[in-house]
Amino acid sequence: MLEVKDLFVNYGAICALSGISFDVQTGEIVALIGANGAGKTTALNTISGLLPAAKGQIFFQGLDLTKTPPHRIVELGISHVPEGRRVFPRMSVLENLEMGAFTRKDKAGIRQSMREIFELFPRLAERKNQMAATLSGGEQQMLTMGRALMAKPSLMLMDEPSMGLAPMLVAEIFRIIGDINHLGTTILLVEQNANIALSIATRAFVIETGNIVIQGKAEELAVNPEVRKAYLGED
Questions:
Q1: What is the percent of the chain with per-residue pLDDT over 90, rounded to a whole number?
Q2: CA–CA gap between residue 170 and residue 19 (Å, rounded)
Q3: What is the pLDDT of residues 10-53, one digit of tens each?
Q4: What pairing do the DSSP bridges indicate for beta strands 29-33 and 63-64?
Q5: Strand arrangement, sheet containing 29-33
Q6: Structure pTM?
Q7: What is the SS3 assignment for 164?
Q8: How many CB atoms lie within 10 A of CB 162?
């Protein structure tokens, strides 16, 4: 479904990604794990067209995304749940969700998607007329996920969904991520909480200073001594 080949991304004179390559197959949850500043968010932002690639290719369903504008990438079936939630604070929950469907013209389909979002996130249904700024952190995370789903993506990019949330809410958010995947959406997940990322992922890639240093099945990485020492807090 998605293939990243020899991708380099620069911030001015700083090389943020140094020729990384990885793939995501249909139906998977693939996790990118690593410390802050490793390049995980940069990878997602480049896939969704928010950052230019200095070199390399990103293929989605055979099309090179490095030559594709961001709005067209959404139309092709990729949605991005950004780090830090980034809701539209002065718009209602309903209006935020409607913004997620801005590339769609099928009004009946949009209404059906809205019903499905409210089934998946009952709390959003209860608060549909509230301003997004008044929601809790967990509810805002649910809103950004729901907004991304309104575009009917085949691939969802998720950036640090656990950030700033209490452990109970983190468990709920990741349960919902599993539900989204089971309903047919492939997921590329960036997550600093390696324990929970590896518990839900099919495969994982460890990024350090712009390079992929370890890769494999998630259950194998979860017992890898290097990964356990560096990212799971074990000696």
A1: 81
A2: 32
A3: 988 899 999 999 999 999 999 999 888 889 999 999 999 999 99
A4: unpaired
A5: 78-81, 155-159, 186-190, 29-33, 203-208, 211-217
A6: 0.92
A7: coil
A8: 20
8 A C-beta contact, residue 207 and residue 48: no
Band (234; pLDDT cuts 50, 70, 90) = low
Q: Which pLDDT score, from 0 to 100, does residue 233 have?
A: 65
Q: Give the per-residue pLDDT at 235.
A: 53
Residue 105 has a CB neighbour count (10 Å cut-off) of 7
Contact yes or no for 34/40 (Cβ under 8 A)? yes
Per DSSP, 48 falls in state T
Q: Answer yes or no: are the C-beta atoms of 214 and 208 closer than 8 Å.
A: no
State which H helix or E strand residue 116 sits in: helix 107-120
The pLDDT value recorded for residue 168 is 86
What CA–CA distance (Å, rounded) separates 196 from 89? 29
What are residue 203's DSSP bridge partners? 30, 217
Instruction: Give me 96's structure tokens.
Output: 């935020």
157 and 139 in contact (C-beta within 8 Å)?
no
CB proximity list for 71: less than 8 A, separation 6 or greater: 103
97: tokens are 């969700």
Contact by Cβ (8 Å): 150, 100: yes
Please check whether residue 32 is in contact with residue 189, taking contact to mean a CB–CB distance below 8 angstroms. Answer: yes
Quick one: pLDDT at residue 83?
Answer: 87
Report pLDDT for 167: 87
